[in-house]
Design brief:
about 325 residues; five-stranded parallel β-sheet; 10 helices; alpha/beta; UDP-N-acetylmuramoyl-L-alanine:D-glutamate ligase; about 35% helix; four-stranded mixed β-sheet
Length: about 325
């Protein structure tokens, strides 16, 4: 089936989190927002007009209600988000310093960490054009890793495309575990969206072009390597393109990579080429760094198109 014959353009699986973001390095004030990498991707895609579904697990608490209300406002289908009456919704805190931003998580034993394959009984994945999962989706617990494995299996059987983002977080699992999981999933991916920082840590490679070659050797067909302010490298079946970063008034880069992924997937689902979608996502990610938090600054389609028109013709 083509994308337009499916109910969803994008379905993501993972954890939503409530965010508390320090307003400056010297401030004791925190802005309440939202995060969780796959939730950020879902919201970014929905703001570009994509039809999005989310698979997750929330605690039966105020923070879980806040996330549910957020997804409802964004027009995301949460039919298969399950509620856990015993486990809490996860939280995280962002602090800032001259060296950059730092995350502190309160997710141990959270409802999302208790995700399992049972939550995939519906046909949301089979009715999607693209399934997006990440290393965080795999790393938060063994049962969540099993859920990701099952979701990928369902996607492959249904002809749903698979997008994977490494999003490697050293506190969650070892480099050896993360690399093993990555090598297992790469041949199954239709689109691989790692960051240079992640693959530097996992492969030991310093040269971005060597990283792309490593990805191809391990089964990736289409890879977009995210390099933060430097932009992205696009490898489409060996055809390489360089997209430079954008100069913007950056105040907080948290969630920018997720914004890139969501916007890219939304544009691909609308028929853009990989390079066109990457150009759009690259601009959107830059714009998202001009505000605090992972979700609030994600731009709309109108904002991205206006920026591209004014700055790049």
């Amino acid at each position: 089936m083509t994308v337009h014959q499916r109910r969803f353009d994008v379905v993501t699986l993972g954890e939503g989190l409530v965010e508390f973001n320090q307003t400056s390095a010297r401030s004791s004030t925190y802005l309440q927002g939202f995060g969780g990498d796959t939730s950020n991707v879902a919201i970014a895609a929905a703001r570009q007009g994509a039809r999005v579904g989310y698979l997750s697990r929330l605690g039966a608490d105020d923070f879980g209600s806040m996330l549910q209300q957020l997804w409802d406002r964004e027009g995301i289908d949460t039919t298969h988000v399950t509620i856990d009456k015993e486990a809490p919704t996860g939280l995280y805190f962002i602090t800032h310093s001259p060296e950059g931003h730092r995350f502190s998580y309160r997710r141990h034993g959270s409802a999302a960490s208790l995700m399992n394959a049972e939550m995939l009984k519906g046909e949301m994945i089979q009715n999607a054009w693209m399934l997006h999962v990440s290393g965080i989706s795999q790393a938060i617990s063994p049962s969540a890793r099993t859920a990701v494995h099952k979701a990928v299996e369902l996607a492959k059987k249904a002809g749903t495309q698979l997008c994977y983002d490494t999003n490697y977080r050293p506190p969650l699992w070892s480099p050896d575990e993360a690399l093993k999981a990555l090598i297992e999933i790469l041949p199954l991916t239709d689109l691989f969206l790692p960051s240079m920082d992640d693959l530097r840590l996992l492969t030991g490679l310093e040269d971005p072009f060597a990283v792309l070659e490593w990805s191809r050797q391990h089964g990736a067909r289409r890879t977009i390597l995210k390099r933060g302010p430097e932009g992205v490298l696009v490898d489409n079946l060996g055809d390489l393109q360089i997209l430079s970063g954008h100069t913007v008034n950056t105040v907080d880069a948290s969630g920018a990579g997720d914004c890139f992924v969501g916007c890219l997937l939304a544009r691909l689902s609308r028929g853009d080429t990989l390079l066109e979608a990457a150009t759009y996502g690259n601009a959107a990610a830059a714009l998202s760094t001009e505000g605090f938090g992972a979700v609030a600054p994600i731009p709309s389609s109108i904002e991205v198109r206006t920026y591209l028109r004014l700055h790049h013709g």
